[in-house]
TrEMBL record:
GO terms for molecular function: acyltransferase activity, transferring groups other than amino-acyl groups. This is Peptidoglycan/LPS O-acetylase OafA/YrhL. GO terms for cellular component: membrane. Residues 6-352 form the Acyltransferase domain. It comes from Nonomuraea dietziae. It holds the Pfam family Acyl_transf_3.
Amino acid sequence: MTRRLAWLDALRGVGATAVLVEHLNYHFLDGLRPRWMNLGIYGVLVFFLVSGYIIPASLERRGEVKAFWISRLFRLYPLYLLVIVITLALAPLLPLRGDADFFAHLTMLMEVTGSAGLVEPMWTLSYEMVFYLLVTGLFVAGVHRRSGLFALAFAALASLVAFTMPREGHLLDGPWAPLVVLAVVAAGLGCVLYGSRSLRTAGGVALAVLAVALIWIGSRETWQGAMILSVMFTGTAIYRWQHGQSSGLWPVAGVATLIVVVPFLKPVTFNGLTNLATMGLAAATFALFFALRERALPRVLAWLGLVSYSVYLVHVPLLKLALLVLGDTRLLPWPVQLALALTLFALILGASWLTYRFVELPAQRYGRRLVSRSAGGVGELSRPRDTRTVSS
């Protein structure tokens, strides 16, 4: 990875570490957990900004929807499926979440189809997948470069529904929703990847409409789903400004105003001031690493970025297993809690390196080989390539 791209891995490392520390803090040294901000949500927001910055650029660099989806599937699904298998195997020891749905897990859209992830952090993958579907539809329709407007539109939607349509819980419920969504995703992607020009357009529109609908009626809180997409498109807007594809950062300023005002004036999930501090710190972290993108960063951060996806998915099952053995660790003396927390931290990083080395990396390499083999046969899915080097 080149120096100018290492900052993205470093940011992923910061995000994954923040989520891991937050979950450890619930069981070890809880008194040290910051109450003025939410460390886990901070890490998630950093991830969303990074995804927004790099995912549309990755699609445009390849210029091929098929290559993009092969890359994404082999990047996300192998480890995801392995963690699901491990979680199911541990069911006699660690009971499964009762509202987890099989078909919802096939699409990763659990959080927006009335289901729950078998592993708690999987909820963010649903919004990643919604973003992929929406970006694919916009790309096929040829309107993908209007990222600033999309960021503002979703921020405005978050502002509107937070005050006019307050609700908690999914509107999509029941076993039919994940199955219908799976069918629409399969049909839409089939049209986009293999259909005629008119079918590709229709499939792209269907995927984009589905993505917006899932945010509107599938999110536990519509304002939160819209805010997440706004954050991701903000990352895209920054990329476009950096590479001379837009006239300025005015959409970023507009989004910042809207998504900060909403949770501050209408606190949902946690205190408005905490929300404000969390989002502000995530934005400041992204801005800092962006400013340092041409400089050498500590290698440990880049390494944490490489294993960040494994850390994110693997740490919860490992933590639950450890707590099953240790019991209520909060009753232990603080030196013992500290020693156990550091030990678990190291073990989780070690296990994450193993899953990265033996699951993620081989799958990514195989995905790249598939992309290379199919490159000659997807010309009519292509748009002009962006020749800049982009890591995905």
